[in-house]
User: Which sequence fits this backbone?
């Protein structure tokens, strides 16, 4: 019996040292939620007033509020009406994939406006003193792309690193890109270099929705691979790579560059939870959380909010709990 116990302890220790890819089959279910769960491309933050806010694609940037991360109430929209310039990029003034953060005494909300299947797109920014819906002031365009560009200016993800402000973005075309932002205006630095972080070797280069997190001595790039927005036929999954520099190069645990199609599988669809993606990461009470949407196979493919704890293995790689 003693030998068996020792063997079990050794096996558990070895398992904890395995890279994330070796545990890819273990996809945990999201935290059970109640209330208004319907959401797409969520970004979540704990506000200074103690409430949790989730903003998302849909409406004029749809808003949800929660006291405990478990029960969510519909809180309307970030804006009462679409800013007029949004109509340059689609006929309905429909924004996508927001990203919320807090710095310099204000909340910052980045978002994209575009039309399906085109890279005639723009990323905008708004600020708020409280982060609550209805309190946002729009400040216009941050960065744009046109049909002659080889990238698509949607799906923003902003990070401060080494005293500078950066925005990762991108969807299909040539994949994930990055530009530096002016911390004062929150907009792209004039003449900023457009850096390349990740792509796929095969058309249509199905990688999008970047989000970068600093942990330890690395920066981790999370991205959604394959197809969203098809209900139960969606094939979205979340992959991750890391770099010692926020600007890359990012590689997976096997050393394959994300610019060559690399990326460890972090979370994939399983059971009723189809097409997991559109992810972001937020920190609360010293813990990291992964927020994403999935398509509920038990509810006709309705997109819903997924929340899971994000922990870090002895090898430094993230895993979902």
Assistant:
């Amino acid at each position: 019996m003693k030998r068996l116990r020792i063997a079990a302890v050794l096996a558990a220790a070895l398992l904890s040292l395995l890279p994330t890819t070796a545990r890819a089959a273990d996809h945990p279910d999201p935290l059970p939620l109640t209330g208004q769960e319907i959401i797409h491309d969520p970004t979540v933050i704990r506000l200074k007033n103690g409430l949790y806010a989730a903003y998302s694609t849909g409406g004029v940037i749809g808003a949800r509020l929660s006291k405990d991360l478990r029960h969510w109430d519909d809180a309307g929209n970030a804006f009462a009406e679409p800013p007029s310039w949004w109509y340059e990029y689609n006929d309905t003034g429909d924004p996508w994939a927001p990203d919320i953060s807090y710095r310099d005494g204000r909340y910052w909300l980045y978002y994209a406006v575009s039309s399906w299947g085109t890279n005639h797109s723009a990323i905008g920014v708004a600020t708020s003193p409280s982060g609550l819906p209805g309190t946002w002031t729009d400040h216009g365009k941050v960065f744009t792309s046109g049909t002659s560009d080889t990238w698509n200016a949607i799906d923003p993800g902003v990070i401060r690193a080494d005293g500078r402000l950066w925005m990762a973005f991108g969807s299909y075309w040539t994949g994930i890109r990055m530009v530096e932002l002016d911390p004062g205006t929150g907009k792209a630095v004039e003449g900023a270099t457009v850096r390349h972080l990740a792509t796929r070797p095969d058309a249509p280069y199905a990688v999008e929705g970047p989000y970068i997190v600093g942990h330890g001595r690395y920066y981790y790039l999370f991205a959604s691979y394959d197809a969203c927005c098809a209900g139960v036929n969606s094939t979205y999954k979340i992959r991750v790579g890391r770099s010692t520099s926020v600007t890359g190069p990012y590689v997976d645990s096997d050393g394959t560059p994300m610019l060559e199609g690399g990326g460890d599988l972090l979370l994939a669809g399983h059971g009723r939870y189809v097409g997991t993606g559109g992810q972001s990461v937020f920190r609360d009470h010293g813990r990291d959380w992964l927020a994403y949407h999935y398509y509920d196979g038990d509810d006709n493919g309705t997109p819903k909010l997924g929340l899971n704890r994000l922990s870090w293995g002895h090898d430094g790689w993230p895993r979902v709990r």
Notes: Residues 2-17 form the longest helix (16 residues). The helical segments are 2-17. DSSP finds one helix and 21 strands in the chain. The domain at 2-320 is CATH 2.115.10.20 (Tachylectin-2; Chain A).
